[in-house]
Write a structure and sequence with these properties.
Number of helices of chain B: 8
Radius of gyration of chain B: 17 Å
Helix content of chain A: 40-55%
Structural class of chain A: alpha/beta
Strand content of chain B: under 5%
Shape of chain B: globular
Number of strands of chain B: 0
Largest sheet of chain B: none
Number of helices of chain A: 12
Strand content of chain A: 5-15%
Distance between the termini of chain B: 47 Å
Oligomer: heterodimer
Largest interface: A-B, 25 and 19 residues
Order of helices and strands of chain A: HEEEHEHEHEHEHEHHEHHEHH
């Protein structure tokens, strides 16, 4: 097999992405376009589900039932990537509750994180998280916000070598510690990186996204809606007619399509508590994506609002 | 750069206002009939502060200590821990503060300023705010009365009660009580602000009023 550079392999995965079926699921569901994880060539749907704030509902039976309906709509709609963290309160437990209720633990691409300053507690925390989810193993474990990555990253890479986790990554959000993040991307054998990117938070375009493409790393995009603040602000304005060029039926879809149109992005993970929003988010992955000129127009328009 | 410096105010929000409100409502329903009990205890302390100042001051410090224990043994582990991972640290803070308040209540001379009418008036004002005003000011329009935050049952009025003890204390005790109380003020304000609640300013206002009273009391 000829040697293929990470960048070429990555670009090939993007070009083929639309034709790659999502992870195995019921055959009747509409597929969400998928892209490959460059390091393992595993295809994942391009829209995932975040759980920050939205799934931290404690033992509240009504809110847990609502979260379960969100997960059901997400999986029924062809979504697979669910992302959580020990930092998110009861979110992991609520995800696990939903997966057990739906008997769908085997259907998800479970992405979680290690988040502790204590080196000795990292492995135990990862195992506790796995038990909360009720999955045989995580598809992805990430060092959350680079917290004590010096200890946790080697531990996660060992877990991957032993087959106890599928992929390893690091995360940050809201533009924090990008210099250190970039340094780790240059020096560590990472499968995934996760950071914030949207039409108004575009710092990642300068270095992190191109570097991910160069290094053959999959990219998860968090906080696409600026924790809801962006979509709340946008709903006060009418959606301009020209957004139909991108096939966007709402502001949320326009933002997601903007993000997914960047070739280095593998999957965006918006969080929501509403089934209608889940369907709207998944639908954003289908249809046309904005070209460079339209992406520029989106950015300029949103900045002006 | 230390890891903790990379966190912002937005990171303080790890749950929604709706999840928090429903948790408070559920836990306060489970706490019934503690509500009338703490209201009566508060009234008793208030009356004593006027008629038997030293006993009232000891009662106030004792009730504040009891509230700290109640937070550490009740609200934090049984309710708030459902949503927040740091309740163990918060409980430790409340236990430490409760020990300090208990020491204030029993130590001779610790509450010597209770004899001063000015200090007593300040304490009564601050305590009345914690006991009677905060529960209703903490209720957004149209919210269920179960969400009223009462002394001994919820952190904010319990912290406010500690602030009411401060003007009655002699200097060393006063400064021992302040660090944890002010940390509680800050934590509560950040939490409430993170879920867009206007009542985030209640405790900082009480703390500012207490600081103003201490300045005035130094001059009289």
């Amino acid at each position: 097999m000829p040697d293929v550079s990470p960048r070429r392999r990555f670009l090939a995965s993007f070009a083929l992405g639309a034709a790659v079926p999502a992870l195995a699921g019921p055959p009747a569901v509409p597929l969400v376009p998928a892209r490959m994880v460059p390091s393992t060539r595993q295809a994942i749907p391009t829209v995932g589900l975040g759980t920050w704030i939205t799934f931290n509902v404690g033992r509240d039976a009504q809110l847990r039932a609502e979260c379960t309906r969100v997960v059901q709509a997400f999986l029924d709609g062809g979504g697979r990537v669910i992302d959580s963290s020990p930092m998110y309160g009861s979110s992991q437990d609520v995800v696990g509750h939903a997966l057990r209720t739906l008997n769908m633990a085997g259907q998800v691409f479970g992405a979680d994180k290690v988040w502790t300053g204590d080196e000795a507690k990292g492995a135990a925390q990862a195992e506790a998280s796995r038990q909360l989810w009720g999955v045989p193993r995580f598809a992805l474990l990430q060092v959350h916000n680079l917290l004590n990555w010096q200890a946790h990253l080697p531990m996660l890479l060992r877990m991957k070598a032993e087959g106890r986790v599928g992929h390893v990554g690091i995360t940050t959000s809201e533009g924090r510690r990008h210099a250190e993040f970039e340094q780790l991307m240059r020096t560590q054998p990472l499968d995934f990186v996760q950071f914030t990117y949207n039409p108004l938070d575009r710092e990642a375009e300068r270095r992190l996204l191109p570097l991910a493409a160069d290094r053959g790393m999959a990219v998860l995009v968090n906080r696409p809606f600026q924790q809801g603040a962006l979509t709340q602000r946008l709903t006060r304005h009418a959606l301009p007619p020209w957004t139909a060029e991108a096939g966007a039926a709402s502001w949320a879809q326009l933002v997601l399509k903007f993000i997914l149109a960047h070739p280095a992005v593998t999957c965006v993970i918006p969080a929501t508590t509403q089934v209608a929003h889940v369907r709207e988010n998944l639908a954003a992955a289908r249809g046309p994506l904005p070209d460079a000129a339209l992406r520029r127009r989106i950015t300029e328009h949103l900045q002006a609002l | 750069m230390p890891d903790w410096l990379s966190y912002s105010l937005g990171d303080a929000q790890i749950f929604s206002a709706r999840a928090y409100d429903r948790l408070v409502e559920r836990c306060m329903q489970e706490a019934w009939p503690a509500q009338p009990l703490v209201l009566v205890l508060g009234l008793a302390v208030l009356v004593m502060l006027w008629w038997r100042p030293m006993a009232g001051a000891r009662g106030l410090a004792g009730l504040a200590a009891f509230s700290g224990v109640s937070m550490a043994a009740g609200w934090l582990p049984h309710c708030y821990a459902e949503l927040h991972w740091a309740t163990g640290w918060m409980a430790a803070g409340f236990v430490l503060q409760a020990l300090l308040l208990a020491a204030v209540a029993v130590s001779p001379g610790a509450l010597q300023r209770a004899a001063s009418p000015g200090a007593r008036a300040g304490a009564v004002t601050l305590f009345t705010f914690a006991w009677a005003a905060m529960p209703w000011l903490s209720l957004p329009t149209g919210a269920s009365a179960w969400r009223a935050e009462l002394i001994g049952l919820m952190p904010a009025p319990s912290i406010a009660m500690t602030l009411a003890v401060v003007p009655l204390c002699a200097s060393p005790w006063r400064f021992l009580l302040l660090p944890l109380a002010l940390a509680g003020v800050l934590l509560d304000a950040v939490t409430q602000a993170s879920i867009d609640r206007a009542q985030w300013m209640l405790l900082p206002l009480e703390a500012a009023a207490m600081a103003g009273m201490l300045l005035v009391l130094r001059r009289i």
